[in-house]
Amino acid sequence: MSQQKNEAALGEPFSEEAVAEYLQRRPDFFERHGTLLLRLKLPHETNGFTVSLIERQVSMLRQRNAELERQLKDLIAVAKVNDSLVEKIHLLSLRLILNSHARVAGRRYRSFARPNDLLPRRVEML
Questions:
Q1: What DSSP letter does each residue of 28-79 carry, written as one string?
Q2: Considering only CA atoms, which of 109, 114, 115 is closest in space to residue 96?
């Protein structure tokens, strides 16, 4: 089965010729859609036994980019957790500052810290 028949079977709305003509009429298309260009794979013609250096470099850069994107998502998740923790500690600090009596401050600390996972084990035993 030819590639065009495969595309027709998949319900592709445009022929390769139509896409090529569209891109020729809009030479700035990939400037406006840079993320699409990053996902395209354009293999270089080789004799079948070697891989083009450029193709190998692009492949490595794509892998590195995917790895960095995963790391960034992980860092953002950690930052959100840290932000929540800072907010809880700030609220606890304000509550403790507003209390002048040490025993009341200690009870308020424990009642706030325990459900918010801010209570170290050694303090919990006191």
A1: THHHH-HHHHHH---PPP--SS---HHHHHHHHHHHHHHHHHHHHHHHHHHH
A2: 109
95 close to 88: Cβ distance less than 8 angstroms:
no
The stretch 103-110 carries a mean pLDDT of 73
Q: Do 112 and 91 touch, CB atoms closer than 8 A?
A: yes
For helices 53-97 and 102-113, the axis angle rounded to 10 degrees is 150
Angle at 53 between CA 51 and CA 54, to 5 degrees: 110
Instruction: Give the pair of three-digit tokens for residue 11.
Output: 């319900």
pLDDT tens for each residue of 9-62? 556 678 889 988 988 998 888 788 878 777 777 666 666 666 667 777 888 899
